[in-house]
């Protein structure tokens, strides 16, 4: 009877360990889903930041046009501003490319967590990590608006890799977990710079809109207020609340890195993913808020 109880106890313990291990592996799939959501949000944000930069620069360009009566000076200013914008949009494209590679890498890790067969996925994951590394210097040395991305990059966090039965997964994590820590830090720095530039451009656009669509019509010596005045005023006033959403959006990349570190170490939990998805949603809320303000 005692031997039977021992066997039952051992089997129960093994079952719990197996369930725990399976849960850890399933989290790679959860993380891949989070990575996909983050990637989509980040790509959308870079496009919105690009549009805001163009609109804000157009405001500045029109203002200096009024002071430049010389045609040659106007041509020079237009060319310089356009070249700067084109360079900026190129930097945004690099960030999008890096983000999409990151998404593919997480999908590859998820696949490695479900098989121990050498199907070439390990080589694909390593190739994706190498491609991110190749993009890294150009992004790190770029500036988003007036903000150099390198100024937002933090120190290296030591990576601890848990033991996994899947040899290809373990090999990949031991080889590139430290690399991914740096690429995720780069994403965090880029996102922080993007949000800083977002806030700056929104301030320019809303200041111009407040004068032209709110203050001037209100002070004009006419008996009527233009249609849409209330909407314009609401958009201007609500724009100030966007800074709170921006702060939450910045946390998305930081939380992505934090969750990856915990995942690799075998210490991630559901609460990590809940916080991560909430921060990713903050990016989407920020984009939607900006679009609504611009369309009002």
Characterization of this structure:
About 80% of the residues lie in helices and about 0% in strands. With about 300 residues, it is mainly alpha-helical. A two-stranded antiparallel ribbon has the order 1-2. Helix 1 (about 1-65) runs antiparallel to helix 6, helix 1 runs parallel beside helix 7 and helix 2 runs antiparallel to helix 3. It is elongated and about 80 Å long. The model is unreliable at about 5-20 (pLDDT under 50).
Helix count equals 7
Could you tell me how far the N terminus lies from the C terminus, measured between alpha carbons in angstroms? Answer: 77 Å
- Mass-distribution shape: elongated
Structural class: mainly alpha
Order of helices and strands: HHHEEHHHH
Low-confidence stretches: 4-21
Q: How is the largest sheet built, in terms of strand order?
A: 1-2
Query: Largest sheet at a glance?
Result: 2 strands, antiparallel
Share of β-strand residues: under 5%
DSSP E strands, number = 2
Mean pLDDT: 85
Radius of gyration: 25 Å
Bin the helical content. over 70%
In short:
The protein has 7 helices and 2 strands, in the order αααββαααα. The chain is mainly α and 296 residues long. The protein is elongated, with a radius of gyration of 25 Å.
Keywords:
2 strands, two-stranded antiparallel ribbon, mainly alpha, 296 residues
How are the elements arranged and paired?
Layout: H1 2-65, H2 71-112, H3 121-140, E1 143-144, E2 147-148, H4 167-219, H5 229-239, H6 242-264, H7 270-295
Antiparallel strand pairs: 1-2
